[in-house]
Design a protein that fits this description.
It comes from Rhodococcoides corynebacterioides. The chain is an alpha/beta fold. It is built from 8 helices and 20 strands. Helix 5 crosses helix 6. The structure holds flavin-adenine dinucleotide and FE2/S2 (inorganic) cluster (FES).
Length: 346
């Protein structure tokens, strides 16, 4: 079988930092604009992947959720909390100033509410508030249901967006309940502490973001409060180890394998995907502008919907059962296991 390899260069955005807002001693918000003045198109809960320059001239990549909402007219912004000894967060917190330019990938990710007609339970710890705040602001600005936010931090001084949250609560007293949990006063967050806040909200969709042990406890609390497991969505913050800004080498066997029909952002494509080739590589080798970031199965940027046929996912560290049941799969980890495939990328 002939193997073709091709270097694929990823499409990048050049964003200007208009303002740096110090949120806490350890966290900043970078307010952004596009170089051409065009609006940045994103959905609440999505993230940007930022190129981090290294001293040897190479680069790394780190993902940061947009803390702004696309539905309130505010400028796009990411919010970064310093990780001790961390490569990307240290550079962004210490080096970037108003006027700096950032190279990023297009907004991506699946931590985005698919429906807004249910009560929302939002659960965050530390910097996990960033995608949750974006969802919260969109819910209040563009939808009608009640929203509960449970936000855990070490102490009052480490609460990001404290003033914004107070302001939102004052402006929406009938719809928004904010419950802060401070470890300094109450110890580590408990499942019961969350259950008490959430109980009484029937049929809610829940969005969780924070360290993994926190999300495990939060999940127990939500289940005890009667939230259905398929309605609990998680965003995992981790550092990606690949560099999507580097040209990506893909190896495929063109013209062989399973026929695939793909609708990618409204354009129709037909190609073949060999049984040992992941769909993302087959699309990139065809010249299709398919989205991706980590290529490791943990960011969700390459998510697609399986319309017909079946795939095997080698790794899935990001999709939850709700998404899986609706046919969502990761292109960077999916190999075909049926005779034909039809897929869609929105
Ligand atoms: C989808 C997504 C959205 C995200 N959104 C946000 C957000 O909105 N805000 C935010 O602040 N973060 C966010 N993150 C997390 C962010 O991408 C980074 O993981 C985070 O900033 C830490 O990166 P860093 O480069 O500063 O630290 P890293 O350099 O990755 O280091 C992390 C830790 O590991 C240690 N370490 C590093 N290398 C080694 C080594 N070789 N041996 C031992 N220890 C080591 C460091 O000392 C540090 O404590 C998000 C992540 C994802 C995937
Ligand atoms: S590119 Fe990150 S999960 Fe596929």
């Amino acid at each position: 079988m002939a193997i073709d390899s091709a270097d694929i260069a990823v499409r990048t955005l050049r964003l200007q930092v208009d303002e740096v807002i110090r949120e806490t001693a350890d966290a900043v918000t970078l307010v952004l604009s596009t170089a051409d003045g065009e609006a940045l198109r994103y959905r609440p809960g999505q993230f940007l992947t930022v190129e981090i320059p290294l001293s040897d001239g190479s680069s790394a990549a780190r993902c940061y959720s947009l803390s702004s909402s696309p539905d309130t007219g505010e400028r796009p912004a990411i919010s970064v909390k310093r990780t001790a000894g961390g490569l990307g967060s240290t550079w962004l917190c210490d080096t970037v100033t108003a006027g700096s330019a950032l190279t990023t990938l297009a907004p991506a990710g699946t931590f985005v509410p698919a429906r807004w007609d249910r009560p929302l339970v939002l659960v965050a710890a530390g910097s996990g508030i960033t995608p949750v705040l974006s969802i919260l602001k969109t819910a209040l600005a563009s939808h009608d249901g009640p929203v509960v936010l449970f936000y855990a931090n070490r102490d009052p001084g480490s609460v990001m967006f404290a003033a914004t949250l107070d302001d939102l609560q004052q402006r929406h007293p009938d719809r928004l309940t904010v419950r802060h949990w401070h470890e300094s006063a109450s110890g580590l967050p408990t499942a019961t502490g969350l259950t008490d806040v959430v109980s009484g909200i029937a049929g809610a969709d829940a969005y969780l973001c924070g360290p993994t042990p926190f999300m495990e406890v939060a999940q127990q609390g939500l289940l005890a409060a009667g939230v259905s497991p398929e309605n609990i969505h998680r965003e995992v913050f981790s550092s990606i180890t690949t560099d999507p800004f580097d040209a990506v080498l893909v190896e495929t066997s063109p013209g062989t394998g399973v026929p695939v029909s793909a609708e990618v952002e409204g354009d129709d494509h037909s190609f073949h995907c060999a049984p040992d080739t992941v769909l993302l590589d087959a699309m990139l080798a065809e010249g299709i502008d398919a989205p991706f970031v980590c290529r490791e199965g943990n960011c969700g940027a390459c998510a697609f919907t399986l319309v017909s046929g079946d795939v095997h996912m080698r790794v899935n560290d990001t999709l939850d059962q709700y998404e899986f049941d609706r046919g969502v799969r990761l292109a960077c980890q999916s190999v075909p296991v049926s005779n034909a495939l039809t897929i869609r990328i929105d």
